[in-house]
């Protein structure tokens, strides 16, 4: 069922939200089953713009951190299977565009979208949950999906060049344990949430476990920069 309309809140800084995405991958409608190969080329996402604000900047691109509300419906009978307004106290969802944190069809549907824009998009099964469907999300096999999306904010993503350079205090193009430790302390102080004293060390260790692929004790620009920016 649809939830109540949330209070609009100004988006927090991209760096503050960036910490969350850097550490914990979002489970926001990520597809447990990829679209079926061989059919995607013949099918595409259909986009209907419901509202386009006069000021349309910046437009969303791969790697941007987006803040949006959306409702999901089954095209077959119009039943609603997802409503972001009924989760997380009605706050809009934050996710990075174009990197698989949402189903492929949504990654495509929300490209070149501007803050304040509303879209209705139709996503074929090959770009959603394919032949397997998604039982946990009440999505049957071979389901065409419809989403009504309202985009609130487009920020630089957490793995942007700007974010890397902000953490890389000495400018050596690699992130040391000390640099990331200091970054965590600053972000913890910024958001003001109460955490167990051990949280800092646990998160720091997890960051290096997931990002220091060569085990040299540093996170290089290449290891950090999963979105392949040319500037690094």
TrEMBL record:
Domain PPIase FKBP-type, chain residue ranges per copy: 63-155
UniProt cross-references to CDD domains, sorted A to Z: EFh
Domain EF-hand positions: 155-190, 199-232
Cellular component terms (Gene Ontology): endoplasmic reticulum
InterPro entries: EF-hand-dom_pair, EF_Hand_1_Ca_BS, EF_hand_dom, PPIase_dom_sf, PPIase_FKBP, PPIase_FKBP_dom
Calcium is among the record's keywords: yes
Domain of life the protein comes from: Eukaryota
A Pfam family hit: FKBP_C
Keywords from the named record: Calcium, Endoplasmic reticulum, Glycoprotein, Isomerase, Metal-binding, Repeat, Rotamase, Signal
Annotated protein name in UniProt: peptidylprolyl isomerase
């Amino acid at each position: 069922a649809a939830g109540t309309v949330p209070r609009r809140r100004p988006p927090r800084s991209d760096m503050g939200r960036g910490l969350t995405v850097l550490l914990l991958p979002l489970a926001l409608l990520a597809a447990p089953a990829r679209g079926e190969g061989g059919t995607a080329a013949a099918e595409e996402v259909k986009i209907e713009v419901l509202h386009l604000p006069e000021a349309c900047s910046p437009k969303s691109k791969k790697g941007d951190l987006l803040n949006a509300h959306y409702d999901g419906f089954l095209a077959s009978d119009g039943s609603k299977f997802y409503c972001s307004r009924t989760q997380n106290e009605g706050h809009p969802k934050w996710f990075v565009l174009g990197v698989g944190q949402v189903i492929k069809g949504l990654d495509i549907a929300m490209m070149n979208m501007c803050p304040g824009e509303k879209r209705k998009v139709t996503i074929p099964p090959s770009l959603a949950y394919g032949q397997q469907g998604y039982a946990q999300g009440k999505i049957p096999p071979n389901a065409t999906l419809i989403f009504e999306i309202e985009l609130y904010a487009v920020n630089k993503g957490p793995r942007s060049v700007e974010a890397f350079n902000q953490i890389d205090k000495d400018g050596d193009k690699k992130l040391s344990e000390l640099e990331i430790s200091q970054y965590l302390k600053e972000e913890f102080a910024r958001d003001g949430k109460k955490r167990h004293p051990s949280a800092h060390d646990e998160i720091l260790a997890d960051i290096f476990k997931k990002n220091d692929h060569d085990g040299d004790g540093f996170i290089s620009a290449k290891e950090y920069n999963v979105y392949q920016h040319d500037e690094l």
